[in-house]
Amino acid sequence: MVKSSFRVPCRRALLGGLAALAVPVAARAQQPPPLVTVLGDSITAGLGLAADLAMPARLQAALDRMGVHSRVYGFGVMGDTSAAGLSRVDRAPVDTRVCVVALGGNDLLQGLDPRTTRANLRAIILRLKARGVRVVLAGVRAPALLGVDYARRFTQLYPELARELDVLYAPDFFTGVIGVSRYMQRDGLHPNAEGARIIAERLAPVVARALQG
Known about the structure:
five-stranded parallel β-sheet, alpha/beta, globular, 52% helix
């Protein structure tokens, strides 16, 4: 009798413990995937492309192929400069886990002082980090035709800022797309569907690292 009465409580305790462990597992299964917000301009907004062919959707597809659990939200606005991005960064979804900051192309087109672009991007990153958001800074390479010194200062501000603020840096992923006619729309400024795919696939590994951090 002593032996039998000992086994029943032990069995009940074991079953109870397994049930308790099952609750957190089920809860985790119901949690939504971590949100990746892409703060950018018309390229992020997918100007001229169907939504499922634009860069955010292509990034989602690339992450899915890598087996990275995530959901990508395109937060791009046509014509946005780094200053415009700063003015709306606080409106990025509150549940953003990772934010890709892909701004500066329009600053470049307007010939803005690289110091201004750097200051705006720095403020954007600091605001995101204050919210606990992991940041991926996407670099922009300035062409030498704008002047060698200007191009150098503009291009270098991105890796320098990433090092200063300790965020992940995605090197210039537009190289080989921008200026190549088969990857561009007729306006010569925005990637077509294939160009958007290439850009997204170059970006995906860095975003995956940010999600794992």
